[in-house]
TrEMBL record:
Keywords: Isomerase
Species the sequence originates in: Cucurbita moschata (Winter crookneck squash)
The family this protein is said to belong to: Belongs to the triosephosphate isomerase family.
SUPFAM superfamilies, per database record: Triosephosphate isomerase (TIM)
PROSITE patterns, A to Z: TIM_1 (PS00171), TIM_2 (PS51440)
Domain of life per record: Eukaryota
Subunit structure: Homodimer.
Pathway noted in the entry: Carbohydrate biosynthesis
InterPro entries xref list: Aldolase_TIM, TIM_sf, TrioseP_Isoase_bac/euk, Triosephosphate_isomerase, Triosephosphate_isomerase_AS
Name recorded for this polypeptide: Triosephosphate isomerase, cytosolic-like
Entry-linked Gene3D superfamilies: Aldolase class I
PANTHER family hit by this protein: OS01G0841600 PROTEIN, TRIOSEPHOSPHATE ISOMERASE
């Protein structure tokens, strides 16, 4: 189906200038598959975006970790989509579970954010995923479908969206989803897109997996037919991120 592999590195709220420079130089020196084979996008905290943007190799790209839901203005502490565009930042992560749970971002609010970011010309990594409690009660598919619907309802096109399935119980826990668990949800999300958006979108949207991905488990996950890449947290700060990029091949 020709979906290009996508590897995102979400640095979360980590790093000093020195550490950021080290990671960038590690990435710049890495031998990885060409940009025809894999999209690599790293997401530093806002304050480091200009540094990373200006020093990172040109075949890798940067993403912000969030942006404001509408046009900028009197919203203390927020960063607008327009500002990201002004800085030449091509991507933004929206709806990460840490923001959903710790900052009470609702699915509707996230749908609005994705729509606004797209309207300004940003590309979006939109995150969905169930909690452990939801998985154990058997509502995984219902939860991720509802989160996806809240986005689908607000956007005119999926062309510039990558959907990230990140089960909350797998994030930062070392408890990675099995390849079969990830494949099951990815296939269901694709089916949901097929039935509710279009066959074309279902076939073309990249659905990436996040949650305790590392250099050792990436290869088997990458072999799943509906898994088109990764959103990596902890391991994206380490040299093994390069091994994860290489799992594209
Ligand atoms: O939340 C994540 C990426 O957005 C995943 O984090 P970890 O890879 O640290 O589990």
């Amino acid at each position: 189906m020709g979906r290009k592999f996508f590897v995102g590195g979400n640095w979360k709220c980590n790093g000093t200038t020195e550490e950021v420079k080290k990671i960038v130089s590690m990435l710049n020196d890495a031998q990885v598959p060409s940009g025809d084979v894999v999209d690599v996008v790293v997401s530093p905290p806002f304050v480091f975006l200009p540094l990373v943007q200006s020093s990172l190799r040109s075949d890798f790209h940067v993403a912000a970790q969030n942006c404001w839901v509408r046009k900028g203005g009197a919203f203390t502490g927020e960063v607008s989509a327009e500002m990201l565009v002004n800085l030449g930042i091509p991507w933004v992560i929206i709806g990460h579970s840490e923001r959903r749970s710790l900052l009470n971002e609702s699915s509707e609010f996230i749908g609005d954010k994705v729509a606004y970011a797209l309207s300004q010309g940003l590309k979006v990594i939109a995150c969905v995923g169930e909690t452990l409690e939801q998985r154990e009660s058997g509502s995984t598919l219902e939860v991720v479908s509802a989160q996806t619907k809240a986005i689908a309802d607000k956007i005119p096109s999926w062309d510039n969206v990558v959907l990230a399935y990140e089960p909350v119980w797998a994030i930062g826990t070392g408890k990675v989803a099995t390849p079969a668990q990830a494949q099951e949800v990815h296939a269901e999300l694709r089916k949901w897109l097929h039935n509710n958006v279009s066959a074309e979108v279902a076939g073309s949207v990249r659905i990436i997996y996040g949650g305790s991905v590392n250099g050792a488990n990436c290869k088997e996950l990458a072999g799943q037919p509906d898994l088109d890449g990764f959103l990596v947290g902890g391991a994206s700060l380490k040299p093994e991120f390069v091994d994860i990029i290489k799992s594209a091949m």
